[in-house]
Structures are given as C-alpha cells and as structure tokens.
C-alpha cells in the first residue's frame, strides 16, 4: 500500500515512512497534481482538506482518499493504522526525509560517519542512497517503534482504536 500525503499532513508522512510505507510528500503541491500522482501511482491520498474529498474522481472511488480528522500527528497515524490495518513489519527501511528505500551499510563502512558512542553501541546501519543520511536503531527510533507497534498490536486485539 502506497500513500501520498497532502501538504497539511507532513508529520504523518514521516510516521508512515518510519513504518516503511512508501509515502509521497511535497511541501507545496496543488490539488490537481496531487490527485494525478495518486491516480497514476495508485497511492492513497491522506488530507485534512474536506474539499479534496468532494472531487468527482474520489467520490467515484477511482482514487482512494482518507480525510484525516485530527490536528495531532499521533492521532493522525493512529487513525490511518486503524483504518487500513497497517503494521510495522517493514519499519526502518525507508528514509524519513526523501522516501527512498534504505540500503544496509557495514559497521566498518560507517566508522568515520557516526559519533563514537553510536559506533560503540550500534551494529546495524542503513543509508539513504539519495541524501546519504545514515540510520541506526538508537533510542529515538526505539521509542518511535515501540509506540507504533503498540498501536498496531492494540488494533489486532480489538479490531479498532
Ligand atoms: Zn534520504
């Protein structure tokens, strides 16, 4: 499942990328272009914009769209997870900034690129082929993933949020 996030839900796009979902996002994009990308690329539109949902192509179900109900990013990701039954099986596989699929890097390859403490404590590294950011499963990532996994597993038990 792939997504395109409207400019009003940028943080949500990052959460989805953290979960490994391909999520297109441009800071300023007009509605026409957004809908066109969603149609050709078969992406689900995520938007806070009520007007967007009234478009014919969306009402007819040719393009799938979800109206995001809340302002808070955490509520937004919970809504999307609940609606589409997403999981975290592909977490840590995509760049949060540019949506590229990350490639594994060996510890030796990153020796000079990460802080010494990180090098000592982390064994697995991933690099974005586009922006060359390095990712490792540090405490921030662990917190994020624990939260996401909790929402996902809660849904499996109850079927909803
Ligand atoms: Zn990147």
Would you kindly provide a written description of the structure presented here, covering whatever features stand out?
The protein is an alpha/beta fold and 161 residues long. Helix content is 43%, strand content 15%. The protein has eight helices and seven strands, in the order βαβαβααβαβααββα. The chain has a four-stranded parallel β-sheet, with helices on both faces. Strands 5-6-7 form a three-stranded antiparallel β-sheet. α1 packs across α5. The longest helix is centred in the last third of the chain and has 20 residues. The two termini are 20 Å apart. Bound molecules: zinc ion. Zinc ion binds next to loops.
CATH superfamily placement of the domain at 2-84:
Response regulator
| Biggest sheet strand line-up | 2-1-3-4
Query: What's the helix count?
Result: 8
Rg of Cα set: 17 Å
Tell me the fraction of residues in β-strands, as a range.
5-15%
Protein structure class: alpha/beta
CATH class of the domain at 2-84: Alpha Beta
**CATH fold-type name of the domain at 2-84:** Rossmann fold
**Could you say which small molecules are bound to this protein?**
zinc ion
End-to-end CA span: 20 Å
- Give the topology string: H per helix, E per strand: EHEHEHHEHEHHEEH
Uncertain runs are: 157-161
User: Which architecture of the domain at 2-84 does the CATH hierarchy give at level 2?
Assistant: 3-Layer(aba) Sandwich
How would the global form be characterised?
elongated
Biggest β-sheet: count, sense, barrel?
A: 4 strands, parallel
Q: What integer is the average pLDDT? A: 92
Secondary structure tally: strands: 7
Helix content, binned percent: 40-55%
Oligomer: single chain
């Amino acid at each position: 499942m792939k997504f395109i996030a409207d400019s009003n839900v940028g943080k949500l796009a990052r959460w989805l990328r953290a979960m490994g979902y391909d999520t297109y996002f441009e800071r300023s994009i007009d509605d026409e272009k957004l809908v066109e990308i969603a149609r050709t690329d078969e992406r689900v539109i995520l938007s806070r914009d009520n007007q967007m949902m009234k478009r014919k192509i969306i009402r007819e179900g040719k393009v799938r769209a979800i109206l995001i109900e809340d302002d808070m990013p955490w509520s937004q990701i919970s809504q999307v997870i609940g609606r589409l039954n997403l999981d975290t099986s592909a977490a840590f596989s995509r760049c949060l900034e540019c949506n590229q699929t990350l490639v594994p890097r060996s510890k030796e390859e990153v020796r000079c690129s990460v802080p010494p403490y990180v090098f000592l404590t982390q064994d697995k590294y991933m690099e974005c082929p586009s922006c060359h950011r390095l990712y490792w499963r540090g405490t921030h990532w662990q917190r994020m993933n624990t939260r996401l996994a909790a929402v996902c597993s809660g849904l499996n038990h109850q079927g909803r949020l």
